Amino acid sequence: MSLSDYILNEQGQTQVRDKVKISIERLQHFEPPEGYYLAFSGGKDSQCIYHLAMEAGVKFEAHYHITTVDPPELVWFIRDNYPDVIMDKPEITMWDLIVKKGMPPTMNQRYCCAALKEVRGKGRICVTGVRWAKSARRKKNRKALEIMTSKAKDKMLFEDNDSDRRLFETCIKQGKRIINPIVDWENADVWEFIRNRKLKYCVLYDNGSRRIGCIGCPMNSRAGAELEAYPKYKAAYLRAFQRMIDKHGYAETSDNWKTPEDVMAWWLYKGKKSSVMAGQVQLT
């Protein structure tokens, strides 16, 4: 189904459910006096929440969190099409993070997101483009309304109903309150919204990318090909890996990281038996 689907009411009658209207109502219902903190990535989902906030008439400021491994095309797209988006510089670069953590980021150890993206917006009501359709895990662990605390296990999730809305509004726990207005949208909904409004989108989607973000992101199955397309970034990663080895002395460890190329091979091909080098650790 596209931007509208069908539900059964209490009388067993079929009703149309307008997803755009529901998303706008979510934003209007919780608008704070100071306005929302809208997390803008430049991707298709964040474009939707940006334009939904505009259509809802709510006050907000959009922030793009620079990670230092941003695709140039993405940065250019944001600057050309969303000049009001605030570009927030990180306190530490990805290269220094790798050295500090002693390993490259992985699917199970995504310290980069926590350090470069998720540190902003504390004390604000934040709007994100999180959607269930991106993964089954998100459907289980993410809701339309959330409160994030310093401890992940203390995260509070709320259904989009009257009682939970009241609880979300009055909750005074210290943490970052989050609204995910398009949490129940499918990929087709996102693209229909963009097409209907004739919005320009980042050229990386037309170049074959299904998701756009940090170059070399461990969540991207095309990370290896992506690094080949951006050789300067690949070289920067290798330099960071060398600094990491120099600091932590991995030549004597079970990881067998003697060169930055060893680290790169482990990073890109972990879990693939035909590609993992002897003595390397596999993350599952």
How large a portion of the residues is in β-strands, by DSSP E? 5-15%
First-to-last CA distance:
35 Å
Order of helices and strands: EEHEHEHEHHEHEEHEHHHH
Overall number of structural domains = 2
How many β-strands, per DSSP? 9
Largest sheet: 7 strands, mixed
CATH fold node name of the largest domain:
Rossmann fold
What is the structural class?
A: alpha/beta
General description of the model:
By secondary structure, the protein is an alpha/beta fold. It folds into two domains: 16-205, Rossmann fold (3-Layer(aba) Sandwich); 223-269, no CATH class. It is built from eleven helices and nine strands. The strands form two sheets. Strands 5-4-3-6-9-7-8 form a seven-stranded mixed beta sheet, covered by helices on one side. Strands 1-2 form a two-stranded antiparallel ribbon. Helix 2 (44-56) links the parallel strand 3 and strand 4 (60-65). Helix 1 (19-29) crosses helix 2, helix 2 packs across helix 8 and helix 10 (231-248) packs across helix 11. The chain is elongated, with a radius of gyration of 21 Å. The two termini are 35 Å apart.
